[in-house]
Amino acid sequence: MTGLYDVSHRHEEGAVTVAKHPVPKGQPILELRGLQKKYGAVEALKPANVTFLCGEIHAIVGENGAGKSTLIKLLTGVIRRTSGEVFWCGEPVQLSNPTEAIARGINAVHQEVVLCPHLSVAANMFLGDEMNKNGLMRKRAMTAAAQAVLNDLGFNLPAAATLSSLTIGQQQLVATARAAMRGTQFLIFDEPTAYLTRQESAQLFRLIRRLQGEGVTIVYISHRMEEVFELADRVSVLRDGTHVGTRKIAETNDAELIALMINRTIEQIYHKETLPIGATIVETRGLTGPGFEDISLSVRAGEIVGLYGLIGAGRSEFALGLYGRQPVTSGEIYWQGKKVEIRNERQAMDLGIALAPESRRDQGLCLNLPIGLNINLPVFDRLTSGFTINRRREIDNADRQIKDLKIKTPTRRVLASAMSGGNQQKIVIGKWLSHGAKLFIFDEPTVGVDVGTKAEIYRLFARLLEQGAGIVLISSYLPEVYELADRLHVFRQGKLVASHGYRGGSHEDVLTQAIGV
Amino acid sequence: MTVEATTEAAPVPKRGMNILFGLTLLGLLLFLWLVLGFATNSFWTPNNISNLLRQGAMTAILAVGQTFVIITAGIDLSVGAVVGFASVAVAWLLAAGVPLWLAMIITLLIGVLIGAFHAFGIVRMGLPAFIITLATLTSLRGIGLLITNGSTISITNEAFTNFSRANFLGVPSLFWMVIVVAIPAYVFLHLSRWGRYLFAVGSNSEAARLSGVNVNRTIYLAYILSSTCAAFVGLLLASRIGIGNATQAEGWELQAIASSVIGGTSLFGAVGSVQGPLLGAFILATINNGANLLNVNSFWQRIITGALIIVIVYFDQLRRRGSR
């Protein structure tokens, strides 16, 4: 019994042999003793003692940069430990490369899907482990087998479809199904729900519980406390590379966990100040474009307008339309009372609109360029005198944002790719703070961001509002928009279907409107 | 893998690394010169050094233009053909009685147009850079051959042909042209915002667009600069050989790309400099020159050049990984 769909027995040649049923439930399956990882002189993970029990769901929480990823990489053999010991089923193991980890039944599902977008769902599920007959792939058999697995899991996904035709959430489910069917005994989820809709998350949770029922040990990494309490049996907390404790979920609460993580209380996270509402900054009337239809709303100085909906509901598309990135086919935009047409991004910026886009990786950052260049990118025209850039101003501007936003980097010359999710988000925000704007659009600003940074971002919102700006906050995380937005608009299938005042309607109402049942 | 490195472990790229890499290349170049000085009697003769500088100069200028394009994560395969075509253009114009200064300006404008056409194909028609520049590579050779009817046009303008043989302050004028190109290129790439935009577009064009960078204009700029550099080299080549011939400069595009890559430019975009390709071009020129002096079979020269590209770029990869 190794995972739900152990299809590895069908191998004609060179099958990976996994010791079946290694230890009884509740006994230690993986023990870390003094596990440590150093990069040069820096300890990314200080000597940690953690025991994972067979068949449990073990959550790991901690802020970005706390050492969670280092731990995962150690367990999956991506990096090698500096010192310490790892015991698998009571025996010392090396875990020196990914192949060894996978051979022992240790797999990971990552936050961002690492599969081949151009291949079919079935081909991805069998990737590297294809069914062969006489050296030829049995494509039809694989599609049928993959479809059977997907159906059985209750995922309504076509196995023959190209992976890239699915939403990111659906791709995540495929990645999980892939791990589930290959003899996994120990499955690590690294923030799997960051890009999932609520239904997709629910499907994923059902699958996780089912795997647990089959005796698979689950490690679940998340920033979302309610998920940890919904799923986990035990939870370990990391802070600054130190394992600060492990608790049984029944014997702890989120206040204690957050205190362990950051030494800060939960009330301080959602920072909301009621400010006098000023004049209307922008108003759209019947705005229609690709992915959104007939959107009429307005944003006034000093208020946060929340846009809530499922992924693909048209919120981001509306934002891109307003920003001039997508063509608007009909409808009108009034900027401070005057009718305007916004044909490109530069026009939007010149009016005073800033957009921190949905995906840091694809839209927000030039990852392989320095932090400083990223921060300065929207304002190079202002940093230029004559033909050349004023080097002093360039450096000062970057350093000021790094300092103001507390971006954790030794210098502005570090590449953006070396930063954690929270710090990357701060770089994106820093770009727009240095440019300045009247209207800030934040699209999913806290995805993959730790609690501490979230609190900082929310405080920053308040600061922008005090300065007379208006904010559009797009989020798939209901508590966030619910607690922060002065007005909350619900999107469904490209249309604005409902509006609420500050904390108007119940969570259930808003959700129902977004899902449309 | 998630890229969530712990913040403390984030590597600090030292600015020294780039300088170090530049110095390594410079060291390699000097090492080659030293070795050739010992191995041959004729290497350190004024004649040979002038010759070497002339040989390297034209590739160097092409490589600088090519680097602008590669930084935007593009490629320009047409530069060799543009050189040949420009030599035909200037020879034809001179033969038609057009004054020299005007013939030169028109030739450079042809370069501008070719670059603009490349960018048009990429931006408006959505063609991959590889395809559109491959298409002009073959078409330009064809047009050049049509104009000359497959033969060559001799250039009788002495002022023009003497230029490439002339020296200034004891240094060949062709090498001075490298400096004339390199200094503004350096200012453009490393000191102006346009340079920053090239890097940003090469790294993530969508992020650049959403930050208000005019991505299309940046791409036009890169390809126009590359083709104009190539047309300029066409003028230099015509001056050097005294003819216009559409089949000249065969394979120079690969020399230019190789120089650029040896000089540390990443074919994935967003990494590159002006000094790197210059050094790369002169390293290649030195190898060819040295191989000639050592009477190495010219077939072997090609093999050695290929092997050297692999070695240098491999070490560059190691360096990057090491600094990560």
Features:
heterodimer; A: alpha/beta; Rossmann fold; 2 domains; 18 helices; globular; B: 324 residues; mainly alpha
The class by helix and strand makeup of chain B works out as mainly alpha
- The fraction of residues assigned to DSSP E strands of chain B is under 5%
Number of domains of chain A: 2
Sketch the major β-sheet of chain A: 6 strands, mixed
Q: Any guess at the CATH architecture of the largest domain in chain A? A: 3-Layer(aba) Sandwich
Percent in helix of chain A: 25-40%
This entry's quaternary arrangement is heterodimer
Find the count of extended strands of chain A (DSSP E, 2+ residues).
24
- Sheet of most strands of chain B: 2 strands, antiparallel
Output mean pLDDT of chain B. 88
Instruction: Count up the helices of chain A.
Output: 18
Structural class category of chain A: alpha/beta
Distance between the termini of chain B: 15 Å
Shape of chain A: globular
Task: Give a quick summary of the entry.
Chain A has about 525 residues and is of the alpha/beta class. In chain A, about 35% of the residues lie in helices and about 25% in strands.
